[in-house]
Records
---
Amino acid sequence: MTANHKFFFLMGGVLALLMLATAIGAILKVRATNEGALATIDNLNARTRAWWVMVFILAIAFVLGPIATLVMFALISYFALREFITLTPTRPSDHVSLSIAFFILIPVQYWLIGSRWYGLFSIFIPVYGFLLLPTMSCLGQDVENFLERCAKIQWGVVIAIYCISHAPALMLLDIPGFEGQNALLMFYLLLVVQMSDVMQYVFGKLFGKTKVAPVVSPSKTVEGLVGGGLAATAIGTAMWWITPFTPLQAAGMSFVIVVMGFLGGLVLSAVKRSLGAKDWGSMIEGHGGALDRMDSVSFAAPIFFHLVRYFLT
Amino acid sequence: MRLIVTPRVLIGCVRFLVGATPRYVNSEPVTRQAIYFANHSSHMDTIALWSALPSAQRAQTRPVAAKDYWGKPGLRNVIARNALNAVLVERATKSAGASIIRPLTEALKQGSSLIIFPEGTRRAERLPGPFKGGLHLLARMFPDVELVPVYLENLHRSLPKGFLMPVPMICTVRFGAPLPRIEGEAREDFLNRARQAVIDLS
């Protein structure tokens, strides 16, 4: 099967799933009896509507080719970093370093993927960005909370740019026998991460009783985690045919993606709460901000990238 | 440049950089002629507030802008005249007197709504400083025009004093309910009440 065939099968499956979710949402809404249930169902339907939009954008980017995909991820990093910086207390002396983060680090990081320069891609932000940003902040001659300010900016840059950029970076791996199909690997990652989030939400709503981390993320439950995680791993295993993996490898990879995605959601929820917010933003109806949707990707993408790079190239 | 800097382009840029999403705090968008007054902390304030208005209101709203900054030839002037249709005024000085307010009264007479920053100058802080008397004068001359308080969040962080380029930062534009008129209220009391209405939105 060619990459295009696989893509159309994949898209067909995703669209069928979205139609199913939309239909279930409509039925639940008619049947809802009390206020609380109605609010939950409205949120569920808002999430499903947002999924239609997100899948549409992703499909357009794929059809337009690798450059469009990189531009799309650069914009995701941009909006995610904007949300992070909005909640971070910065001072006027950070202005130059913030400008560099948004207008230089983001374009350069994605340009490095596009130009297939793996060496610089992997150290550009951890080395050059890490040293440049505090240098620019310190030239502002303002030492109040200097370390805290620098650390928070660094953290935002690493999560929103560096970590997220590892998803499209899958395109620069040379996997023998899988030439020209790398975009599918990126889809696979996004599919498993997002299905894991969706399934954890669904299982949590249906069977959730025991909270995993009540302080950090009150909506996560053990039942949701186990049920959703297993379901997502099963989906990832069943999708082995779009990847270069054997079914067993696909199961292992999915499991790692699910675990990392869960940890990403947990850690970023703790960060968000320590910055005094419940949602990162309000850009995506029902979900919150861009970073609420990308939190699990930011942890899963780098690990998935390096596992594939180590074992398959 | 005139062809590029259209209202649509300007609004696109503002949304991309600072979002400028409107939020109506215990209120609805005002459809009648209005004077929007807000805290002033950056050069982005005017464009952000203007972008956040519903398009029907935006079409009839003219920001009031200082001639010495927005009137300079170049990009600023094109933005002010072409896209914003701003009312350019001299800055208030002791010698200028009441005549500087004339372009404002004329715009109001023609039925336009206005955006003004009653502090008169930018402040680097979250909350507005004391209001100058212009708002009081206009409120007395035009008793039927609604006075809408607006609070602009985060813009002083996006574009601090002394920098040219804004940094991306989500800014919410909070509109409050129109200020009720109180018969025979002293000038100072009115100005304090107006300032408090903006602070209450923060």
---
Amino acid sequence: MARGKSRRADPITAVPASRLPRFSAHAGRRIVLGIPTVWLIVLFLVPFIIVFKISFSEVRLAMPPVAPLFEWLDGRLVAIKLNFANYAFLFTDALYVSSYLYSLKVAAVSTLLCLLLGYPMAYAIARSSPTSRSVLLMLIVLPFWTSFLLRVYAWIGLLKTNGVINNMLMSIGIIHEPLTMMQTDFAVYIGIVYSYLPFMILPLYANLEKHDLTLIEAAADLGARPLTAFRRITLPQSMPGIIAGSLLVFIPAVGEYVIPSLLGRTDQLMIGRVLSDEFFENRDWPVASAVAILMLGLLVVPIMLFQHFEKRTLEAPK
Amino acid sequence: MSTQPSGPAAGAPYLRIENVTKRFGDFVAVNDVSLHVQRGEIFCLLGGSGSGKTTLLRMLAGFETPTSGKIYIDGQDMCDIPPYDRPVNMMFQSYALFPHMTVEKNVAFGLEQERLGRQEISKRVGEILEIVKMNPYLARKPHQLSGGQRQRVALARALVKRPKLLLLDEPLAALDRKLREHTQFELINIQEQLGVTFVVVTHDQEEAMTLSSRMGVMNHGQIVQVGTPTDIYEFPSTRFVADFIGSVNMFEGKLIEDEPDFVRIRCEDLGGIVYVNHGISSAPDATVWVAVRPEKINITRQAPVPAGGAHQPEVRAGENVVRGTVKEIAYMGDMSIYLVKAESGKTIRVTIPNVARHAEDRITWDETVYLSWHAASPVVLTR
């Protein structure tokens, strides 16, 4: 509303954009991005290159127990010895292939179980009142206050032949002989699902909590029963959360070492165990490195393909 | 009291709301509301925030259940019917379009729930998108559409189910002014074309006035007045309605003459007598309020003689006239608002249409002016 009396306002003087804040913002961004970059280079990329290099070396009885890749004479490079035998070896011994497959199976089943258990929990937390929400989230994070190793050890006490679960079931009279739960796939699944469930719940919660509930009302208004509304509206929109949670469970589960070692079968090793045995028992660094590189390839290639695909489907509409 | 003509003729009401009350804990959101809406009407519920209008709408959609009272649509009791089984569709204020679905999929969603054939669905989706002129955007997703386009898709999605009742929650609130005006008329056209009964909730009186065939003004969970937009504007039944719809000058006064066809009221605010040429039924000496709309007041430099002019001889000299000083002028383009301070100290608002582009001799600040109005212009309110 243009008031008659104060019709002419002074023109607002344009404040020139100061150079100083822009410069320092730039520097700030460099520092923020630089620290993790340096961290990743020193603690991830360099070790990775070293392991990658070792995987092409030959074993020798010395310290370090690998032959050098490059031979130098008078400051000149005279020979590069690339040894692919380590990789070939992984496919000649059935131990490695079966360990890889077993690891993938355990990780896949555990991820699925985490999803089936975690989704309803995340959903319930996201739909609860704001006050109980923080309490419930706290409860999800609470196990992290105790060491991971201790928690896995605690499962031995629960699962072993004269452990808590068997004793209880026998005293109630449901079973008359103790169940064998230790050193089984079952125990490994319990251990992995128990340990990694929070990593499934938290990203799912973060996603579900942001959902616009009027969309569910709109679906109901258009004739969708609650289950249909969930299947057609909530589920598709929670896909990013499902994917993030599944990756956070699947990737560490494939390389899991502690849980299968403590709770798992002795006749079937997971690849993490094989890897550590090669390094520390056999002291065959080149083969161990090859195992590690191949495992990385097995995990990274599908994820990169998936992300590439995902980016394309996201870019198309957005 | 009746300062207002009787409501529209009765027929079998299509929507019947009977003594509906909704409580949230101690808070009464909707308080004993009864309302009838006829088939094919555009009925607007107008009220400020917290007046209970949205809660009432959500009860019609089935998202809330009344604490007590009944809702009938086309004779059918809606009490135990969940939202997904009601013959009612809603257009949400945020539109609530499904972001992961295309325009076509959004509109088809409701029909898919009815388990119609693929061909039938695409035929009806095509038809309704034709009506809202969104055919070219079938394959777009909601975030690729403008606000106005999203509004059309939301409308199409609600209408494609051929509901008995279409509920619209602030249908135009998210649109900019120009688009809003255009869309208002389009909405009326579509409603006439399809004959669907609309119930619109809005806080925007302009929207309610242009859209509705009848409207109900809500305050504190109750419907204060129901009537056509003209009824509500020209014959408000309470001070709240008079003040809520449009702007109004309200003068408190004492009833001094109360005849069947006229009243005289002494107003201290005006320092004089107000003559109104219609009767009210109230006790003598009762405190009443005289409401005069700003556009119904004339502003002149000379005292009008006799007060209301030759065509209202019953008005005595000095009645319906106030002398004052112009304190403030706001130029609005199509009209100007004058704030005139009466000798009693009361500020009176007057609007004058800007008929000529250059008025040489326009009344200006600090001039002494006379305000006068026709004896038929004021509304006398008793509460």
---
Amino acid sequence: MSGMQIVFLVAAAITLVSAVLVVTLRRTMSSALLLVLTLLGVSVLFVLLQAQFFAVVQVLIYIGAVATLILFVVMLTRSVMDTSEPQVHKNWWLAALVSLVVFVALVVTLSSWQAFPQVQRAIPADSGENLAALGKALVDPNGFALPFEVASILLVATMIGAVYIASERKGEE
Amino acid sequence: MTINDLNTILPLVVLAGWSVVVLLADLWIPKDRKGWTAALSAVGLVVVLGLTLARGGTVQKAFFGTVLVDGFALYLDIIFLVGGLAGIALAYDYLKRMELERGEYYPLLLIAISGMMLMTYANDLIIVFLALELLSLPLYIMAGFARFNLQSEEAALKYFLLGSFASGLVLYGVALLFGASGHTDLPGLVNTMRAGTGNQALFLFGAALLLVGFSFKTGIVPFHMWMPDVYQGAPSPATAFMSVGAKAAGFAALMRVFVTVFPSLSDDLTPILWALAAITMVVGNVLAISQKNIKRLLAYSSIAQSGYLLMAFVPYANAEVSSDSIAAMLFYLLAYTLTTFGAWAVIIQMEQQERRGLEVADYAGLGKRHPWLGLAMTIFMLSFTGVPLTLGFWGKFYLFSTAVEGGFVGLALIGLLTSVVSAFYYLRVVVVMYMQPGDPPVKQNRWVNLTALLAAAVVVGLAFIPGSVLDLALQAVLQLQ
């Protein structure tokens, strides 16, 4: 077992365990902090895939912005979010059983599939040039300018919705 | 960016820009005059409809082939834009009556339509995904537009959670297809499939995930669970618009992607599509029988209609039949759109404050007290059932006959039998309207009335010239690819 594989196993284990804890722990604050750990584990996986840029973006945006925002929301609304209701549905074991069966079936099917483990092509090494090309492609009409613009309209729609649903609650109730 | 690129997608650019203009203009429109916002949005839709028609159905590519405008896009865009106009006509009076009158409704509607139009142009899986999100997000908000009504909030939340789950599946499918071939553009995927160089296992998984994701959006059993609650909880005009728009756009995406890219996977996919179509028709129609609430009844009816539409996909890999069956599906989509908007126009006039007037029993006496509305509703119910002299009859006729042509006699038989079952609950509405005494309160509004009567007239009128409508649909399909 090479060093890379050990790092991968450790990072994957931390990611999975903390991800499970995020949804099972009762205190929202602990869940939010564990979410940070999960996202950090994912960024380690990106490094192992030689996608340094995505690793940095993962840390900067998901941990730096999204998770921080979630922490703020949890702290500001702690009294509202505390609930004593049961966390699991009464038939949870049935759902778990079905998921497990599907998972095992998928693993068995995939491992017996000849074509599956073939790697199509090697991952190109990440360098500064790739990054510049990515940036240019995002605003190039022959690249991703249209999807980029569509995404901005999408954000406008989301913003209208968020403001509409959240605003004026106090005044109208 | 060349001007040509923008010129090709000009209707879309104008529509998206106009939605922002309407949003800004709404700031200066006083609270009790939101009719102006509705009118402004309608004007924008008419202009875009004009631009779309003026451009015609010639095949044009833009943005390095990521978008493609052709007769197929033209046909569906007309459905979406006319549907948008009907959506505004239905919404204006209803929102005022239910004290929901807020200008944001109309820009959101315009953005949803731009998403649907983008879906018809999409020639790249990235665009397919973005268009899916662009049309879904405004619909989630419109479903929850009655903010202080718990049912509406529940509808929005359920729709949002399951919808984002479906989007996640679509995205996963796109990622697998990219992994299998190194392409996200449809021509690139087609070439890889033909050459057989891609990873076939990943292709199949990707295709299956896309199918599941779009089945969520179009309400195909067993991915239909959200539909009855969302249809019932959302404000009626939003339900009407989403039941046509989301479904047609979902099927548009399926048509583009499956017919062009995955014909060689048909050995694996055709039995799955067969089974999905069959159980959707059976489950939708059987569950509709016991519904007492008219909105829920139409929700299950809409699920059943998805089954009929999906039927056209089953022979999709058979080149001789597929263009006929897809044309039959486009034809059916037109009939479905007109009938649905008409039926909802009647429901909206019947709905009273606090969600009263929504039970089938409330329709007692409608046929005698308001003969025109009763007649219109009768026509829509007959068209949904597929009775001759309505557009719905020809829709089902073409669908079933192409299924038989493709060698799927069993499926056509299931379709025929479930149609007979559906007659029971559709005709029950007609029986209640004419045979039971009552004096239902009706909130007449000329725009809603106009939508209902116009839709009824067209449903009957076009039934006399089904051949020329089918020709239009066939032309649209021949340019697909």
